[in-house]
Amino acid sequence: MTRTIYVLNGPNLNLLGQRQPEIYGHDTLKTVEDLCRANCAEGFDIRLLQSNHEGQIIDWIHEARHAACAIVINPAAYTHTSVAILDALNAFEAPVIEVHISNVHKREAFRHHSYVSLRADGVIAGLGIEGYAAAVRRVCSLLG
Ligand code: DQA
């Protein structure tokens, strides 16, 4: 069985570290990748991907059906809009953890609803990039 954890990131997260640092912090997605690897148990591997395009994220979720043992996903703004990403995740049979760097519940009302939460096995919000580390650790303990 594959032991690769897909860590998928949605739109604008390529700008992590530059974009609204008062909300998202100063760390970059490269730091997130290093953090995920550092928190990954032995025998597991990390594949961190980011796209600004909904269809690309869906294609990676489809690929994960055969190539990943779990998905950690920060869908960014698609969290609040994308039935298509929810449908793709519903076709993925292993653990899914949803991560938000900011506490979306403390922000605008449109960020309070998540389509992805209808599928996620766990949801983390407001822990900064440490939320990714917690998600990776959770997946590793779930899968042993
Ligand atoms: C985000 C929260 C979303 O509402 C927002 O659109 C993002 C990032 C977060 O990580 O806090 O782009 O998912």
Automatic annotation (TrEMBL):
The active site is at Y24, H100. The record marks R19 as: Transition state stabilizer. It is an enzyme of class 4 (lyase). Pathway: Metabolic intermediate biosynthesis; chorismate biosynthesis; chorismate from D-erythrose 4-phosphate and phosphoenolpyruvate: step 3/7. The keyword Ribonucleoprotein does not apply. SUPFAM superfamilies: Type II 3-dehydroquinate dehydratase (SSF52304). This is 3-dehydroquinate dehydratase. The gene is aroQ.
